[in-house]
Structures are given as C-alpha cells and as structure tokens.
Design goal:
By secondary structure, the protein is α/β, with parallel strands linked by helices. It has helices at 17-28, 40-52, 67-81, 104-132, 153-172, 199-212, 216-227, and strands at residues 8-12, 32-37, 56-61, 86-89, 135-140, 178-185, 237-240. It has a 7-stranded parallel beta sheet, sandwiched between helices. Bound molecules: NADPH dihydro-nicotinamide-adenine-dinucleotide phosphate. Residues 7-190 form the Ketoreductase domain.
C-alpha cells in the first residue's frame, strides 16, 4: 500500500506541465486529486484520463489571482472527499526580460499569480488544516531563486518571496499540524516559457528547455516523495534540475 492511498490532494496549475504530471503521478499512487486551472478543457481531459485508469479526480475552474477561487477549490476537496490533506500551490507564470525593459504589466502578473496566488491558497487551506489537526503545503518555487541570473529578476523574486513565506510558516508551525515543502525545479520541458512576450527571449528560453530540460514527471516524482512521507517527517526543500544545468 502506497503512502498516498488515502490522501486528498488539491493542485493548482494542473492543466499542463508540472501540475498535470503531478496529478497523474499522485492519482496513480492512489491519491484523490482536485485539480484547478483556467483551461477547463485541459482539466476535463486529464480528469477523464485519471478516472479511466481507475483513479479519483475532480476538475475546477480556478484563477489563483481570485481569492474566492482557492476557497472553492479547498471546499470542493472537503465536500467531495471529506477533507484536504495536501495543497500543491503550483500555478505560475514566467515573464523573462531584463529589468530595464520595464515590463511593468508582466511584473504585476508574476506577482499576482506567483505570490498572491500562493498566499490565497495558504489562506484557503490553513484553517482546514488546523481544524483537521494536519495538513501539508507544497509549492513549486525555482532554481532561479537559488542562482540569480539576468532577465529573471522579478520571476526569481516572486519565487523567493514564496520560499520565504513557507520557511516562516514552518517555524510558526512546530506544533506538528503543518508540513511545508518548497520544490525547486530547474529547467523542465513545459509550456512555461512559451508565454514569454519578447520573441528573442522566448526563442532563447525555448531552445534552453529543448536542449537541457527534463521531463515534468521528474518533478512529479519528487512531489510524491515529499507527500508520501509519514506525518512526522517533513521534506522542507527539494531541488530537481537537469544534471547538465549550470
Ligand atoms: P506550465 O505553463 O505548463 O503550467 C503553468 C500552470 O499554471 C498551468 O496549468 C496554468 O493553467 C497555471 N496558471 C497560470 N496562471 C494561472 C492563474 N491565474 N490561475 C490558475 N492557474 C494558472 O508551466 P510549468 O508546469 O513549468 O509551471 C508550473 C510551476 O513550476 C510554475 O509555478 C513555474 O514557475 C514552476 N517552475 C517551472 C520550471 C520550468 O522549467 N518549467 C522551473 C522552475 C519552476 P491555466 O493557464 O490553464 O490557468
């Protein structure tokens, strides 16, 4: 029996990339997954696939910039499956460009999705975790917050803001109720950089992903590893990068 057999896990950003791979991996290991994102056609297809393979899954139209949507996601887990064991706050956007380009709208979007979106998830899940007497928060931060490089300043800043919040939350939660895990992926082959606005930056990033990027399945396995530990074991930080990444 897997450590995930009875777990109820909500995942944001589950419509593609790391979130979708994590949904499949966790459902495959026996967890019930509640999946949030804006592209519901993708979520519906993923849920159909999980159910066809004998798993348990529910989709929900979620925009993480809207606090009420995270409340709805957590409520769906509790209503449908009786509780929420883990929130994987994974939704994120990367708008890569030098600071001097002053892409202020992109900065706002990264702050709204990558920082506010995770805080909304924490606000929705924490009261449920406290009431249950246990819970686990997992976030996908990034190696870009560990090794600072040009053109990723605001993106890396958002990821390090989340890392900081999770570490503080960990220190505030030594009563054993809450586990926190920050997952730091390196280059992972997903749609993330397809949304970079500047064509030159986008093409460069896509090339790096194609040459170096690892499968999102690798990150999904790391998340599963953290989640399936016994309640008294907290995997605080995990870095998963391509072996050839500098
Ligand atoms: P994808 O672009 O494939 O996935 C991003 C996910 O976030 C999508 O499911 C998207 O769903 C969702 N999302 C974006 N905006 C919102 C929103 N406002 N509300 C709800 N969901 C939203 O990229 P990845 O899988 O790579 O990204 C997943 C996470 O991993 C991100 O936080 C990213 O920063 C992080 N990461 C990725 C790395 C990589 O190399 N790929 C490296 C390090 C970290 P939809 O558009 O349907 O709403």
């Amino acid at each position: 029996m897997s450590g995930l057999d009875s777990k109820i896990i909500a995942i944001t950003g589950a419509s593609s990339g790391i979130g979708a791979a994590t949904a499949l991996e966790l459902a495959n290991r026996g967890a019930a997954v509640v999946l949030g994102a804006r592209r519901t056609d993708r979520l519906d297809a993923l849920v159909a696939r999980i159910r066809a393979e004998g798993g348990r899954a529910e989709p929900l139209d979620v925009d993480v910039t809207d606090r009420a949507d995270l409340d709805r996601l957590v409520a769906l887990a509790v209503d449908r499956f009786g509780r929420l064991d883990v929130l994987v706050a994974n939704a994120g956007v990367a708008r890569i460009a030098p600071v001097a380009d002053l892409d202020v709208d992109d900065w706002d979007q990264m702050i709204d999705v990558n920082v506010r979106g995770v805080l909304h998830g924490i606000a929705a899940a924490l009261p449920v975790f406290r009431e249950q007497g246990r819970g686990h928060l997992v976030t996908t931060v990034s190696t870009s917050g560990l090794k600072i490089v040009p053109s990723q300043a605001v993106y890396a800043g958002t990821k390090n803001a989340v890392r900081t919040v999770l570490e503080a939350l960990r220190q505030e939660s030594t009563d054993g109720v809450l586990r926190t895990t920050s997952i730091s992926p390196g280059f992972v082959r997903t749609e993330l950089v397809d949304h970079v606005q500047d064509p030159e930056q986008r093409q460069q990033a896509q090339q790096t992903m194609a040459e170096l990027g690892i499968s999102p399945d690798a990150v999904a396995r790391a998340i599963a590893f953290a989640v399936e530990q016994p309640d008294d074991v907290e995997i605080g930080d995990l870095t998963i990068r391509p072996t050839k990444q500098g």
